[in-house]
Write a structure and sequence with these properties.
This protein has one domain. It is built from 11 helices and 2 strands, in the order αααααααβαβααα. InterPro entries: SPP.
Length: about 280
């Protein structure tokens, strides 16, 4: 069977969820053994941070030539990847070894940004971030954050702002999303060879937003931390159904074009969490 963007997206989310659960279970043991008391953050601060980040990034991309921003943006993503991978590896390896591997992987991405390597590092890093932020945010707070961002996602995609940012960043080989080639032979393509402002390049790959997966993982870990493994697996299933529904929404309402994935994912997750509340599971 030939895999398409739907298969790749579902496989990616499933793999990231499995990794996030595995990392979080180890992290939960570590927190309990060390007697660490974690702060619980409400939805307000993350939403303020997200809004400021989007505003600053948008203004920066609009006002400054990319040649001035190239190294700054690449350096920022390199640190984000390295830190996320370090969080995942640091729970099983000595800190020095985890740091070396994480930095080596990030530097390899910087010099050799093949699609498969980009997706691998992004997935591992997002699992790391999910395992951190999921422990300090309640499921209700995460759902509120996802609902607000869903509105932004819908407006941003409909207005063309989202793809404008992605295309601008692709000019310096930065794509804040999973990139799936439409042909299996194209996994060795480098991000630096893609220019998503070109219609020809848009047709040879499809994208799954890193934020769509990232917030899903934060919710998954939050449910795991608050209610246990069974509700976490049920949440994982709801998130998979939400992602699957994105492709129906894409065909039905967006004619196969760029589609906001966060609203369907959030709706499915919220419905699943609500049913678990009614059933007394959480």
């Amino acid at each position: 069977m030939k895999l398409n963007s739907t298969h790749y997206s579902l496989i990616t989310l499933a793999a990231c969820q499995a990794l996030a659960i595995a990392v979080s279970l180890r992290q939960q043991v570590f927190i309990e053994e060390e007697g660490i008391i974690l702060p619980e953050i409400t939805a307000g601060p993350p939403l303020v941070y997200f809004s400021l980040t989007v505003a600053v990034l948008g203004l920066t991309l609009a006002l400054l030539p990319l040649r001035f921003l190239k190294y700054l943006i690449k350096g920022m993503f390199l640190l984000l990847y390295a830190w996320g991978v370090f969080v995942v590896l640091g729970l099983t390896l000595p800190a020095a070894a985890a740091g070396v591997i994480a930095l080596t992987g990030a530097l390899a991405w910087l010099k050799w940004p093949r699609l498969w390597l980009h997706n691998l590092l992004l997935g591992v890093a997002l699992a790391g971030y999910g395992s951190v932020f999921g422990f300090i945010l309640s499921p209700g707070s995460v759902l509120v954050i996802m609902a607000v961002i869903s509105i932004y996602d819908l407006v941003s995609v409909k207005s063309g702002h989202m793809m404008w940012m992605v295309k601008k960043l692709s000019g310096v080989a930065i794509v804040p999303a999973f990139v799936f080639p439409r042909r299996g032979a194209d996994w060795s393509i480098e991000l630096s060879d893609l220019r998503l402002e070109n219609e020809a390049d848009e047709r040879i790959v499809s994208l799954l937003g890193g934020g769509d997966v990232g917030f899903a993982l934060i919710l998954l870990v939050s449910v795991l931390a608050a209610a246990g493994i069974v509700p976490a697996f049920l949440t994982a299933g709801a998130l998979m159904l939400g992602l699957l529904s994105v492709f129906w929404v894409q065909r039905a309402f967006f004619k196969g074009g760029p589609t906001p994935a966060m609203p369907p994912i959030t709706a499915a997750a919220g419905l699943g969490y609500g049913l678990m509340l009614l059933a007394g599971i959480v």
